Amino acid sequence: MQSDPGVYEQTLTLELSALQPELRVLIVDDDPDARDYLVAVVQEAGYQTAVASSGEEALQLLETEFCPIMITDRNMPGMDGVTLCKRAREGHYPGYLYIFLLTAQNASADIVSGLKAGADDYLGKKNISAPELVARLGNARRIVSLEQALRRALDQKRQMANTDALTGAYSRRYLERQLSLELERTRRFNHPVSLLLLDIDYFKRINDRYGHAIGDEVLRNTYRRLRDLLPRACDWIARYGGEEFLIVLIDTDLRGAEIVAQRLVRAMADTPIDSSAGPIPVTISVGGSEAAQILTSDLNSTRLIEIADRCLYASKRDGRNRYTMSLDGQSPLAFSSAASSAQGQAH
Which sequence positions carry the modification called 4-aspartylphosphate (predicted)? Predict the structure, then answer.
């Protein structure tokens, strides 16, 4: 292998200016001398390295310590570089794997077979120079960086679609999709799931008195308090619309949901919600429903929410600041009177 120190130093300076320090390069070669040379050049260029002496060892490293760039020799005993490329492309990694195939065979057919196997680029083993290697690594780094940026953008877009922008609760879109999945799990494993649909009492009066900006603060801080009051991390909250939130309680029957509803109603009534205008008394009305262990054929997410909505209406009709629970929306199985510590606070 050849090296031109002057050109190499110039190329190295350019690459270091835009280098991502956390980028790691996996070097795979059964020849210790060739492997050590590659490690020295790659590390001097500012990249971190991991090494493997066989294709099998390389695949194990990719699973446990993923490196976004891999340089592998083509001709190795056991699993050769072409097979390693194919196997690596079948893996499931946290990001894109950019593969260099290092080969002493410069015939067109050999290069084509390596690229078809999954290699992104090839390096001539007999005449590769340090500056060329660093320059090609720079190209690989740019592609890996673009893929990482795209992945982050897609994750952010997905998160935005799943999250209500105002409150931080899950969105209505997420609710509709995820609740259907929860009901499928209920049918399959015979585990109950319960809903609590709640409404901030007389929220319009808060907006009229303090303005919509303060009303938005009340919505955000109400969500945060509700979230902190949930008993388990697996339970979740979505903003259902306006001043309504829907809580999904996993593996919880109606009796368990009633305990949670009672806690929420009392906690909201006991302590005003903080805002820029000062503490604001807030109470909630709650309606609860349960998808029982044996589901009827017509019980879907829409029907389950309808039952909770009927119970919520009953709570509001009976004076607000209370909860009502039912399996069918017709016959309440549990209900509460208004929380004593906050009688009339939100009226």
Answer: 73
**Alpha helices, DSSP H, located in the chain:** 5-17, 32-44, 55-64, 81-89, 108-117, 130-162, 172-189, 203-210, 212-229, 254-270, 301-317
Domain 170-326 in CATH 3.40.50.720: no
Over residues 87-110, mean pLDDT:
88
Percent of the chain with pLDDT over 90: 66
Domain ranges of the chain: 21-159, 170-326
Please tell me which residue in 243, 258, 290, 306 is annotated as part of the active site: 243
Any catalytic annotation for residue 63?
no
Let me know: does 238 contact 169? Beta carbons within 8 Å.
yes
Domain 21-159 grouped into CATH 3.80.10.10: no
Residue 7: pLDDT band by 50, 70, 90 thresholds? very low
Please give the model's pTM, rounded to 2 decimal places. Answer: 0.61
Contacts 24+ apart (CB under 8 A), 138-141: 138/14, 138/15, 138/18, 140/69, 140/98, 140/100, 141/15, 141/18, 141/19, 141/20, 141/23, 141/69
> pLDDT per residue over 256-310, tens digit each?
999 999 999 999 999 999 999 999 999 999 999 998 745 555 678 898 999 999 9
What CA–CA distance (Å, rounded) separates 161 from 173?
Answer: 7
**What digits encode the pLDDT tens for the residues 11-21?**
444 443 444 44
